[in-house]
Write a structure and sequence with these properties.
2 copies of one chain form a homodimer.
Chain A lengths: L3 E8 L2 E7 L4 E4 L1 E3 L12 H7 L3 E4 L1 H6 L3 H6 L3 H4 L5 E4 L3 H6 L3 E2 L4 E4 L6 E4 L1 H11 L3 E3 L11 H24 L3 H4 L1 E6 L5 H12 L5 E4 L12 H8 L8 E3 L5 H8 L5 E3 L2 H7 L2 E4 L2 E4 L26 H9 L3 H28 L2 H12 L1
Parallel strand pairs in A: 4-14, 5-6, 6-10, 10-11, 11-12, 12-13, 13-14
Antiparallel strand pairs in A: 1-2, 2-3, 7-8, 8-9, 15-16
Helix pairs in contact in A: 6-7, 7-9, 9-10, 11-15, 12-14, 13-14, 14-15
Chain lengths: 369, 369
């Protein structure tokens, strides 16, 4: 079903609002933690509720191979499977598959399973069927994402194939007897950093009347400032009353830049992956807790945030657990980073509501750019 | 300071009571989860509070090498270090050191660090000093634990050396300017499965007037029934008004057998280690969740316990997380096993209070022996 966006406040092009889906509502801007195989590493759905997460992402590629979409479906779909009452979203599986250098044709992609080496085919229709079985509230079409930089010809081919696949995916989704009553399907805009191709891709995607829209293929290696105008070229074409999602972006400076250009939703493995390696998001920027200077520190991770759920454990203790590879370290640091980023997004939302987004963004750039 | 035991109910020789230390009180029988390096794997002190744990064990061997007892001391001692308000207990380090086949003399043991290969010496006095620095509420003397079966000569040598070391450790502890005002030191009874040597070791340990008493060197490979009488020979000699601790025992049948012979405190890595490998403690006995039959199961781990903190997640979901090695699995299964065992000990305590311990123990044997 169509995911609607109700605007509460606008500050420049930054939007604070509410997205409504078949599941219910969530407020935006929104950061969605990534639960690759049906769980955010080291956390349970209870932890995610306590952190105030609203939407959890699952990776179709991984879930279709293990435990298999049929098992997720038989156990009630991704949300019930993970005992998670909030929203769920699945990618199409394409991003992981393309990293495996598959054989690609207009038909789809053929790749080898990392689990047992078996040959698997991923088509636009198959990605729809698999995601319907997995049953996330929001599913993504299979697209073709080019690395940057790429030649115009490569970007053009990816754009055209993405549009072709989007038509077939939309048709497959709408042809399912019940999916479109319960679930939402988002289209994906490609086009590299070429403004005209971004606008064209956005227009061709919007023509298919998706339930929401994502921008893909940006922040994939190019400098942050290089995607500002291409992003604007895309969002200018997207309907104002539907949610907009920037795929795979999770650094604070990037998030404010994208929100400034009308984006509502984000996901990224960055905060959780950094945490597992001992790097923390703090009011002073990134902090590598493995550094020897923290060995005897009795301070909490971020003294500026005494209300953090991990403020009770000292840097010295957490560093020790990291050094001896105790899994409790990865857990507590993951909680910190997600809490910090979710609070950051909440603060950003408040600044939009208060009409102080520009000041907020300037402060973020000073710290994080 | 002397740890006192206040008896609330006795059923046969099974005791339900309260232990008082410099930190405060905890009720017995008591199972103490093991936080080897300052954390129970995958859990934080907040989790342990929510589970109702009362005493957490730390391993001196690991903590003295990483982060070093000086760092634990400078960060306030083990409890404050781990942000844990309850009781803490450290072993002497001997158990781990002896597994490294060190050079042993009357002086002490010399071994190589597993971290960097450096030569380290562990003496009765050093074990006291290190544990005072680590600062757990209860510390253990350095003893010599023989494998079973061993010859009488080996058991005798271990007994005599344990007694010699206990004298030196007690003297060292009492000679410290403040330790004995805040902390409690427990002696350890050895003697293999020989009744006379067990009784002798207990008498010689009690003569040193420790703050509490442990029984070591039992349940180290011999059949469960083989340690019943030697344990009785030891506990018969121990003062009724001080706590008694059976080191390294964690299976339900063993726990009831030891409680039936007057033991109050237990520790074991078993419930947490089993959990990490997918084996659960349930009302139907041990259950290996990796079995294929659970792949599509929507049931909770133990349908008999809907109030388990992990009852919300299905066997199928948890099995999937185990199969793909998601750390969330180890966490949730660890919570289950500790919750289950702590509840088991609570139920046992209730049965002692109600005078139905014998029935309780019979039920446990039917399920677990």
């Amino acid at each position: 079903m169509k995911a609607t966006f109700d605007l509460e406040h606008k500050d420049g092009d930054a939007r604070a609002g509410t997205v409504t889906t078949g599941r219910g509502t969530f407020s935006t801007p929104c950061f969605m933690p990534v639960g690759t195989r049906g769980a955010v590493k080291h956390l349970s759905s209870k932890d995610l509720s306590e952190l105030g997460a609203q939407v959890i992402l699952g990776n179709t590629y991984h879930l279709m191979l293990r435990p298999g979409s049929d098992i997720v479906e038989s156990l009630g779909g991704l949300g019930k499977f993970a005992n998670w009452d909030g929203h769920t979203l699945t990618d199409s599986g394409g991003y992981q598959v393309f990293s495996l250098e598959p054989k690609i044709s207009d038909e789809g992609a053929i790749f080898k399973s990392v689990y047992d080496g078996s040959k698997i085919s991923l088509t636009p229709e198959g990605a729809v069927d698999t995601q319907i079985a997995i049953g996330a509230d929001i599913q993504m079409v299979l697209d073709v994402c080019s690395a940057l930089p790429s030649s115009d010809a490569v970007i053009r081919e990816a754009l055209d194939r993405t549009a072709l696949w989007a038509t077939r995916a939309r048709s497959r989704f709408l042809g399912h007897p019940t999916a479109s009553e319960r679930l939402s399907q988002f289209g994906i805009v490609q086009g590299g950093i070429d403004l005209a191709m971004r606008a064209e891709s956005a227009q061709r995607t919007v023509e298919l009347d998706f339930d929401g829209y994502a921008v893909g293929g940006l922040s994939v290696g190019e400098h942050r400032t290089q995607w500002h105008e291409p992003l604007r070229a895309a969002t200018d074409q997207l309907p104002a009353d539907q949610p907009r999602y920037f795929m795979g972006l999770g650094d604070p400076a990037g998030i404010v830049d994208a929100v400034a250009r009308g984006i509502d939703m984000f996901d990224c493995v960055l905060p959780t992956r950094l945490a597992r390696h001992g790097t923390l998001l703090t009011s002073q920027g990134r902090m590598n807790l493995t550094r020897a200077e923290f060995a005897k520190s009795d301070d909490p991770i971020d003294p500026a945030y005494p209300d953090s759920p991990v403020a009770g454990w000292s840097r010295g203790y957490l560093r020790h657990l990291l050094q001896v590879k105790e899994p409790t370290a990865a857990r507590l640091l993951t909680i910190h980073n997600l809490w910090w980023l979710l609070r950051f997004v909440d603060d950003m939302r408040t600044s939009i509501t208060n009409g102080t987004f520009e000041t907020f963004a300037a402060g973020v750039h000073e710290q994080w750019s």
